[in-house]
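Pilot study result, target chain (502 residues):
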Amino acid sequence: MATRDELVAAVAARYGLSTRAEKKAILDEFTAVTGLHRKHAMRLLRSGPGPRETVRPARRTYTDATREALVVIWEASDRVCGKRLKAMLPLLVEGMERHSHLRLDPGVKEQLLAMSSASIDRALRPMRESAGRSRRRPPASAVRASIPVRTHQDWNNPPPGFMEADLVLHCGTATKGSYLQTLVLTDIATGWTECAPLLVREQRLLTQVLDEVVKMLPFPLLGLDTDNDSVFMNETLQAWCAEAGVEFTRCRPYRKNDQAWVEQKNGAVVRCIVGYRRLEGLEAAACLGRLYADVRRFVNFYQPSFKLVSKERDGAKVRKRHQAPATPCQRLQAHPQTPSETKSELKGMVQALDPVRLLRDIRSGQAALVAIADKVAAAPSGKEDPPPLDAFLAGMRTAWQGGEVRPTALPKAKQKRGRRRPDPFAAVDSQLRDWFLAEPWRTSCEFLDRLQGEHPGRYPDGQIRTLQRRLKIWRMEHAHALVFGSGNKLDAHADAPPGASA
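Predicted structure:
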């Protein structure tokens, strides 16, 4: 301000004696130097520097008696903050005087009730510091404030290497005690997914696991985006990212859509493969690590996924466009920034992998993990030998008949009741089956019309749905016989006429 006043004093006299064109040049130079608005600069140069008030108005002062009374009332309020204490002062003063705990001079009482919340905090600052009860920010808060936020719209089609990270808890139905967790990392550009077990929630262990995961990645790790969990928001992981040259960002609190890429893999990979059982102990961690070694190859080389290209909202309707489904390996090979050496290595890995053998090893690892989690009597000690590959491949033909084949999937609850009403078509079941085998392309309405013609008044139109369910089962068995050959319950030799629908 003093420098500006000196400049105004030096230029004002020349400005008043100048012509219009010279004033314009002086204004241009003056505004460029000072950064002032042109109109304000004109007023300053016309009037010159005026006297400036340098003495601040006196603040309201409080006596030592007022401060001492404030400390007593602050202690009586259980040391609340100034804003809350300001609202409590009239009540506390009146209550303490009523019970003869406090006797205030009228002047002291007037000053005490007139204090603002900021003045209360300033007066109590030495007492708070010596009392040692000031609320401090947790260490994660300071680290969190220093890490930039990245939303789901800020990626802007990054190259391979920018990954989202998250933890999946294997605590079962209770979070009490110690249990395993899975660290999931998903690449934004390709969808490449890596999973690794964590025995405990510890930041140094997390960085050690990250060191091992980075070695397995087919591309360098360029960025790491996490949520606001304290296991990520700490100086240890921040220092690890700085040393490795990794860009460290975080999502917004309570906004899971900011990490939509890794959140999708939490369910599609981890929960689908591992399930929801409680896992704890070294044995379960070792088994889970062996399982993830097979899962990473199967998911990244043989599991195509869709990738969202754009999303448009028209009122309540949302239109989404996706890329053609491709595996993470295919997307990595097709990316223009992937080196040719990496493409050659990926091609060699694809040729060396056997998808059926991988799936068999995954099923065996799931069964061993379930045995450890459920603590059955026949729990295997170590890694159990998987079944022969030929037997596993032969069982894939009819595996669908047994329902869910993943050992980690929890069995569904049995139906509460069976059929209660009598079967209306029990008397003509064999006759209906013969009609269906002879003409499997006929519809349920045609069969019901035929029954009504042969048995008038016995089969009303309302029983069409029961007949449809029965024919649906027969059609499924008939289709299975056409695909897999013999071994079905129906005769598959009945041929439909051209143009007929089965």
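One observation from the pilot: The beta strands are 162-169, 181-187, 193-198, 223-226, 247-250, 308-314, 317-322. A full batch analysis is planned for the follow-on phase.
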